[in-house]
Write a structure and sequence with these properties.
By secondary structure, the protein is α+β, with helices and mostly antiparallel strands. Helices cover 25% and strands 37% of the residues. The radius of gyration is 14 Å and the shape is globular. The two termini are 17 Å apart.
């Protein structure tokens, strides 16, 4: 049931607020229970001190969860965030971030995911997140 990358890109383009689309996220990979998105470096997303803002990282994690759930289900269905928790581990400056969302449980009404956000070229994550989604359709 895995989505093709082109279909995942259509879901990304057609189901998010304009400000989320302005992050420039793109789908790198989809699988049976995961998706990897790229958050491109943009100085507009940096906070004082030059690091990528936590809000941008959290939005990217939230968005990647939608694509991962859609890939696991084989199609997009309406869903909403119930809970998101993010731990920031190191600053990202001047590098794209790979956002790897893995579904840990997919039920009929709820989905749970763990997300790792890693600056491209780095071995250690910049942040980790967990999300819980209510599936509405």
């Amino acid at each position: 049931m895995t989505l093709e990358i082109a279909e995942a890109e259509k879901i990304l383009a057609g189901n998010f607020a304009p400000w989320v689309l302005e992050l420039g996220l793109s789908v790198v990979e989809t699988g049976d229970a995961h998706a990897v998105l790229r958050l491109p470096w943009d100085e507009r997303l940096a906070r004082e001190g030059g690091g990528l803002s936590g809000q941008a990282l959290m939005a990217a994690a939230d968005t990647a969860t939608v694509i991962a759930v859609s890939s696991a289900r084989g199609a997009f269905v309406p869903m909403t965030t119930v809970q998101q928790s993010t731990s920031f581990q190191r600053m990202v400056a001047g590098a794209d971030v790979l956002v790897d969302a893995r579904i840990t449980k997919l039920g009929r009404r709820m989905a749970f995911a763990e997300i790792t956000l890693t600056a491209e070229g780095e071995a250690e994550p910049a942040a980790r997140a967990s999300t819980v989604y209510a599936l509405l359709g």
